[in-house]
Amino acid sequence: MKSIMLATDGSPSAEQATQDAIELARALHLPLTVVSVAHAEFPLLGYYGYAYADVVAELRTMQREHVERVLASVRERAAAAGVAGETVALEGMPGEEICRAARERRVRMIVVGAHGWGRMGRLIHGSVSDYVLHHAEMPVLLVAGEPATEAHPIAA
Q: pLDDT at residue 147 above 50?
């Protein structure tokens, strides 16, 4: 039986996508596959001291631990709602890994949250949801998070 895949980073903007994915899986009597991705490391520009390898290893460990906490939390919530499924920890570039995992597992659809960043925020941070929306081979349910607030000029 094909499952619904939830891709989450555990952020507040992913909260609504998590709730919607659990409710959708329950309503359709489908299993839920939950994935979370530990991001690929990038070199720390300008820092090449003797402890560089230690810093990178510590960052990788922190990311993996975060992914495990996110997956455990969603697994508990899904079980409490009567939804069966699996959790999968991934590592690499998030959009690519989500699409690869969805393709390999032949999921029915992917549910992913959007941060609600504007054009500048997407330029700076990138957009995993945009990548998944344009590269997935199955339907994608893009769930809008809370819109980012813009700074307002100080009135004189």
A: yes
